[in-house]
Amino acid sequence: MLSKDLIMRLLVQVGVALAALAVGALLLVAIGVAPPDALHAFWSGTFGTPTNAGTTLTQAVPLLLVALGWILTTRAGRLHVGFPGQILAGGSLATAVGLQCGSLPGPVAVVLIAIAGIGGGALWAGLTAWLWASRGVLEIVSSLLLNLVAIQVADWSVRGPLQGSLDGQPQSANFPAAALWPSVESIPGRTLSYDVVLLPVCAIAVVLLLSRTAFGFRLRVAGGNQEAARWSGIDPVREGVAAIVISGGFAGLAGAALLFAGSAPWMSDGFEAGVGFNGIAVALLARNSPVGAVATAVVFSALNVGGTAMQAQLDVPSSLASVLQGAVIVLVLVAAVVLHGRTRTPSAAKSAARRRSGVVVHSGARTEEA
Amino acid sequence: MKTRPDSGPARRGTGTGASALRLTGVTKRFGSFVANDAVDLDIAWGEIHALLGENGAGKTTLMRIVTGLYTPDEGGIELDGEPVRFRKPEHALRAGIGMVHQHFTLVPTLTELENLAIAPAAVPWRNGLTEARRRSQEVATATGLRITPDRLVADASVGERQRLEIVKLLCRGARILIFDEPSAALSPGEWDELANLMRRLAADGHAVILISHKLSEVFSVADRYTVLRRGAVSGSGTIAEATPDHLVTLMVGDRMADRPPLPAGTPGPAVLTIRSLDVARDDNQPAGPKALQGIDLEVRRGEILGIAGVAGSGQSELVEVLMGIRPALSGAIELAGRPFTHRSPRRFFRAGGAVIPEDRHHAAIVPGMTLWENITLRSLRSAPLNRQGLLDVRAASAEARRLMNEFDVRADSENLPIGRLSGGNQQKAVLARELSGNPALLIAAQPVRGLDVRAADFVYRSLVAHRERGGAVLLISMDLDEVISMSDRIAVLAHGRIQGVVEAAKATRANLGALMTSSGEAL
Questions:
Q1: Taking a C-beta distance cutoff of 8 angstroms, is the pair B178, B67 a contact?
Q2: Which residue has the higher pLDDT, B69 or B452?
Q3: Which of A275, A304, B79, B381 is 20 to 30 Å from A363 at the Cα level?
Q4: How far off is chain B from A281, nearest CA to CA, in Å?
Q5: Is residue A329's pLDDT more than 80?
Q6: Cβ contact (<8 Å) for A225 and B367?
Q7: Which residue of A has its CA nearest to B364?
Q8: What pLDDT digit, counting tens, does each position of B196-216 carry?
Q9: Cβ of residue B345 closer than 8 Å to a chain A Cβ
Q10: Average pLDDT over residues B326-350
Q11: Cis omega before residue A290 (within 30°)?
Q12: Who's near B171: CB < 8 A, 6+ residues apart?
């Protein structure tokens, strides 16, 4: 029963990948590039050399962090899309702290910057959480709107308080070397940041948090049935707030990672680069499994990096990568619907029918009681 | 549509008209449960016919058949002497049968006229407002029922909304009107108005079916009655020849419970004390009508106190206040010897309370989580299963397995999602969870609802065992047999007041039923 589900799931995921490849091949043919050439360029650009593999893995980290935030909030029964804003908030605060860290020893600076990133993201998410918990504003709406606010705030800060380059560009001063997150020195170009350890560590931490801690348990109860949570002494609002704030912390850490483990050692206004929403797609593609999200984050990162490589080598527009990502997202949604329909049809339809007849049996009593 | 309201056949008073609606041998089964058992019902034009019966007696099912929500398994329906078969509610409505629901089907943000105009239109772009205005004026001249067309429904009182609901049905050509517990939401003055209206509709040639628990209302307006008990007709006749006692006996029967009475217990000191508790019906309107008024209750150690009463008498409010989910207006509660003033579910459990909620799916289980997680839903969150925030998962599932064994929860594995279990096993899992902490007070709200006989029996025995161990049980049930056979003492709750507390040994269905129904006048 379970293994059948699993096989079905894997088949659908392979199907999504194949369909995405087919879409990509069609597009390539349409713009006059031979798919084998493109494939070669894509491979060498993503995993073909240690340098490129390092880039791919490093860029997967922010995606995974956002995905983990999404997974936590959905487990608590909440749904917010404020990751871009939280990345910007976390990145801005991390930049503000990082620029002051020049004289500190490396490890202290790294930890401080990470904490600043987490704090910035959590604070920004806290606005959403507070609006929801105390004012009843739907978190999906407020988080979406706060993204727009965060974009403006980040724009302003790189033109104002954080502006640091001499020629008046909208970007901060270069981060001090001590503040940059360390990377593996043996790889040419030092593209592999040590923060890739966050990939397995954070995924496993989220798994353990959800399954092995009282906090995670309360979170899942609140997300599984709000009313039952209330009736057993769990405050679903508190758990929802906690989940939103923690997910903001993850997104803020992603913002810090984007800047301090990225290719450019400064903050510019566009550093978020779509990671916030792509992270959601990463989680959806992994069907909200933290461990699965590690793999899908690498896939998404590879699409990004490989798209750039194809542009460099074959003059394929890099927007092709975005098109492919879009195609994957749509296909994942389709697959989710297909899977949902499939797992429902045999067992759930029957139980739904049973439930309905159950309701009918008591409905006489129930309506009269009302 | 054969006839329109203005061309309806007989139009003479009190029950002497030609047959409007005749049901013969109508049977409806849900699985093995027979909701309606060969019911015969005869409604005449121009009469007010009362349909009486306890909860679950089959009144609502019968009316759902009449209004086309259900199709009967056996038996036939005749309208004006011609057999009809409704497959959809629209069919019944088109044939002139309309129901005034307990919960109105109005859109509060629209005006009264706009509400009248909500109807499946023949052509989607036609504006129904003119037509609705014309029809409502026709209805006003025919019956004297006037609406305020341009007022928002949200601004109308409950009585006015009910009137609008009736006008809506009349506008659509309803000739047989079914009122489902119409007085539930009304003040006494509004009820008098409604009673007059029903009489006028009947005098006008319409047929009126009144579903009610309140005998006083039935005696004040109805011409004839039909009583259902356990899905079958237990009696019918004219109101003029009936007495309240007779109707109560028909409703509740006079046989005694088949379960042997509880052995006499030895109650100890009070575990739960409630003093002059007042609770608003709507949390947001403390000045509004009250759901509970002046409640004084005491549940002692080693005692099962039953709360009897028709549903909606304030039982769920009582449970929610005790749990701390709903605020009280005034009054004092003591739990396990300590004042229980700042109430919350957490504090309730910490003070030694436990609860089997009435609505299992809604409030008691998390269907998507495993059986063991549901069984340890509360114990998992405190020591020893929770050590500084870290869960001892292995010990928790072992504990769950032990409880599954003790409480006879049947499942292949404790790792199954509880949503896949049968209702009986789910309820036993809830019972296991709530009794495992050996609570001082267990609130059991309808604990056997929807369970088969064996599972129900297990729940009963567990409650009694808990009582033998010195626990206190507050048993809330709509089933008189259950309350009588399961309780040491029985408090009768009606219209938010305790109407009396009866020792179980002296309780009969008849005297409890009389307390439950006859006291409607007090309000």
A1: yes
A2: B69
A3: B79
A4: 24
A5: no
A6: yes
A7: A228
A8: 889 988 998 899 999 887 777
A9: yes
A10: 91
A11: no
A12: B116, B132, B135, B136, B139
ipTM surpassing 0.90, yes or no? Answer: no
**Chain B nearest-CA residue for A229:** B363
Contacts of A361 in chain B (CB under 8 A): 30-31, 33, 35, 450
Domain map (residue ranges) of chain A:
58-295
Is the CB of A217 inside 8 Å of chain B's CB atoms? Answer: yes
Name the residue among A170, A29, A1, A172 with its Cα closest to residue A98: A172
pLDDT tens readout for residues B274-284: 999 999 888 88
Best-predicted range by mean pLDDT (A67-81, B94-108, B134-148, B351-365) = A67-81
CA–CA distance from B261 to each of A257, B3, B258, B410, B512 (Å)?
A: 71, 57, 9, 29, 16
**8 Å CB contact between B271 and B300:** yes
Q: Which residues contact A282 (CB under 8 A, 6 or more apart)?
A: A63, A64, A66, A67, A293, A296, A297, A300
Per-residue exposure over A156-185, b if at least 16 CB sit within 10 Å of its own CB, e if not: ebbeeebbbeeeeebbbeebbebbbbebee
CATH number of B255-352+439-523: 3.40.50.300
Distance CA B315, CA B309 (A): 8
Q: Do A370 and B420 touch (CB under 8 A)?
A: no
Give pLDDT, residue A357.
35
**Contact status, residue A280 vs residue A70, Cβ threshold 8 Å:** yes
DSSP B62: H
Q: In this complex, is the C-beta atom of B15 within 8 Å of any C-beta atom belonging to chain A?
A: no
Q: What is the pLDDT of residues B151-199, one digit of tens each?
A: 888 888 777 888 888 888 888 888 999 998 887 667 667 788 888 889 9
> Does CATH place domain B5-29+38-252 in 3.40.50.300?
yes
Between positions 93 and 122 of B, the ones with CB within 8 A of A are: 102-103
- pLDDT tens per residue across span A193-244: 999 999 999 999 999 999 999 999 999 999 999 999 999 999 999 999 999 9
For residue A221, which residues of chain B lie inside 8 Å, CB to CB?
A: 366, 369, 377
Report residue B2: phi and psi, to 5°: -85, -50
Count of beta carbons in the 10 Å neighbourhood of residue B205: 20
List, as ranges, residues 438-467 from B with C-beta within 8 Å of A: 449-450
Per DSSP, the three-state class of B154 is helix
Compare all CA atoms of chain A with the CA of B363 and give the residue at the minimum distance.
A228
Note whether A232 contacts B390, CB cutoff 8 Å.
Answer: no
According to DSSP, the β-strands at B330-335 and B33-44 are unpaired
Predicted confidence band of residue A359 (pLDDT cuts 50, 70, 90): very low
Q: What are the residue boundaries of the structural domains of chain B, listed by start?
A: 5-29+38-252, 255-352+439-523, 361-438
Name the nearest CA neighbour of A298 among A15, A56, A83, A67: A56
What is the rounded radius of gyration, in angstroms, for the C-alpha atoms of chain A? 23
d(CA A108, CA A36): 47
What pLDDT sits at residue B337? 86
Please report residues of B whose CB lies closer than 8 A to that of A234: 381
* Residue B144, phi-psi category: left (phi > 0), alpha (psi -120 to 50), beta (remainder): left
Q: Is the pLDDT of residue B132 over 90?
A: no
Average pLDDT over residues B412-422: 87
